[in-house]
Amino acid sequence: MSRATILVVLLLLGACSAYRDRSVAVLPAEVPVAALAGTWVEIARFPNVFQRGCGQSTATYVPRPDGDISVINACIEPGGTVRRAEGIARVAGPGLLEVSFAPALPFAWSDYLILSLDGEVAVTASPGGGLAWILARRICPTPEAIAEALALLEANGYRTERMERFDTPSLRP
């Protein structure tokens, strides 16, 4: 098999992994910034480049006087080093945040849907289906809360079988 054929096959396989059934209507919630504020623990996520090899992830959202939101993502690398990324989020519409970790660059903003935010569990995802997270205020949310979050993602066309789970202390890296 030629290198070109192998490359095409790999690209097609990669495109399939980020597929989301867009025929399903995404019904995002409003973005209540006060409910988003504070620290959230990552319960589950789709594998992604910027969190590869990192566990015990948290996301902290701090409302700013200018209406934007400071975002501080942190996780622990295998050697125990804390990896941090600081950025800015802004409400861009109902259920939609724009987030950038390089806000001075106009092309560095990404859209994230807030599919659910109830004070204890939050479900966020990229509109294209390549990224999704389940976040909670505590490390071990109820099994019912996790099941509801997974069902919400599935109802919106996300393939939850790809999710890495960290919802019990024994599963946390």
Automatic annotation (TrEMBL):
A lipid is attached at residue 16 (S-diacylglycerol cysteine). GO terms for molecular function: lipid binding. One of its GO terms (cellular component) is cell outer membrane. Keywords: Cell outer membrane, Lipid-binding, Lipoprotein, Membrane, Palmitate, Signal. GO terms for biological process: response to stress. A lipid is attached at residue 16 (N-palmitoyl cysteine). The keyword Membrane applies. It is found in: Cell outer membrane. It comes from the Bacteria. Its main location: membrane. Residues 1-20 form the signal peptide. Residues 36-165 form the Lipocalin/cytosolic fatty-acid binding domain. Homodimer. Belongs to the calycin superfamily. Lipocalin family. Involved in the storage or transport of lipids necessary for membrane maintenance under stressful conditions. Displays a binding preference for lysophospholipids. This is Outer membrane lipoprotein Blc.
